[in-house]
Design goal:
single chain; alpha+beta; four-stranded antiparallel beta sheet; two-stranded antiparallel ribbon; about 15% strand; globular
Length: about 160
């Protein structure tokens, strides 16, 4: 099963769910400067994020240290909605931390076509938002439309595009 797909520059190697849930792998991914080589990721992250922030709030380090304007760019405040009100799980915390560390942003719930953060998966115990599209903060304004499509008979996950 492919979990991550890089758009516009080919496909990253597929990762099994077992590998993606390996704490050592997650630690490595969270520390990489992913923003330098990823433009857009989409896939099943098995992460509940609720409406927790994927950016650093009140990011204004330039007041604390003497950095030139070109050396540091604070995070933008970008509100995000989510109709899945489950508590943030460990995978969600890892995903949110990776986003904060790399300036990657979640499109679900903040983009025209999915302003509410529609659930992406339905199982015997309810629906949830676990399939995400992520993009760099620099590209988020160039995303014109993002949608969570209707369920199909082929999967319990709704297609996202």
């Amino acid at each position: 099963m492919r979990i991550f797909k890089k758009l516009s520059c080919g496909t990253l190697e597929g990762l099994s769910s077992e590998k993606a849930n390996d704490p050592h792998f997650q630690d490595i991914v969270s520390k990489l400067s992913i923003a330098s080589f990823v433009e857009t990721w989409l896939g099943d992250f098995n992460a509940y994020t609720n409406t927790q922030l994927d950016f650093i709030e009140f990011d204004n380090v330039t007041e604390l240290v003497n950095l030139g304007d070109s050396e540091y760019h604070p995070d933008r405040t970008l509100s995000r909605n989510n109709l899945d009100h489950k508590h943030t799980n460990n995978s969600g915390k890892l995903l949110l931390n990776m986003c904060k560390e790399t300036k990657i942003r979640i499109l679900n719930g903040r983009t025209t076509g999915d302003l509410n953060g529609q659930p992406t998966c339905i199982t015997y115990n309810g629906s949830s938002l676990v399939d995400y599209t992520l993009t760099s903060e620099e590209l988020i304004d160039s995303i014109g439309y993002f949608v969570v499509h209707d369920f199909t008979s082929l999967s319990n996950h709704r297609p996202i595009s």
